[in-house]
# Entry
Amino acid sequence: MDNKLLEQRARAFDYLFDAVVVTDMAGIIIDWNLGSERLYGYTRDEAMGRPVNILHVPEDTAHITAEVLSAVDQKGQWSGEIRMLHKDGSIGWIESIVVPLFDDSGAMIGALGINRDISERKQHQERLAYLAHHDPLTGLPNRYLLRDRLEQLIYVGDRSEQSFALLFIDVDNLKRINDESGHAAGDKVLEYAALIFKQNVRACDTVARIGGDEFVIVLQGIHQPEEISRVIEAISEGLSRPLTLDGKEITPSASIGTAIYPVHGDTADKLMSHADRAMYQVKRGSPDK
# Structure
């Protein structure tokens, strides 16, 4: 091939926007362009001769290697989205395609990977996914994520006979607080209530806001009435501490109804309905609420 053409191709390789990484059969980096320097932070001298797994998040290395080798063997190439490790230790995402390299006799001698930074896109996707499943005011799971978790617990419980409790909670007098002190005050009360709920359950439990003044707590592995009562008492005690808003003290309270799986229902809808009815019985028994 014409030396001038080879030189032009080498220059084009070095100035491609994408990161191009070439490895030998042992996974050692043998070529590296400026795009790779921009993406990974290593200079050419720092990268050459080092294993390509310096570019991977350590716990991802084994499955990436197995997946790439299998796809290249079966399909002649691999493409996908994987996490990448920058020289400074930060983690991002790349869109990558890997193709084998062959010598003149047709023997595979290495691989060429073309990698593009998609970290911003992944962050945007993750943000959208978060917003789709969480309440924007409190950051708690919303009704869609709650339902998913309930169905998972029911699936497990159906096979292992594990029980759990569901608390349906209505923050009392929210409309009056909104009318008297404004919706900003009402939002503060909801945020405060959410904080109290989270402080009085375990990490394995779920606290969700399903809309307006309504919350649901799912207590895994709890089904005895006295266990449930202790959680309710702790929540009520936490809410009894006054919240000061614009110089005015507000003492939130809540009406709480309970349901136990599978005693009060074997589906998410049945459990929610039972706990909702129980909550309204509590509320009707307290005229001020």
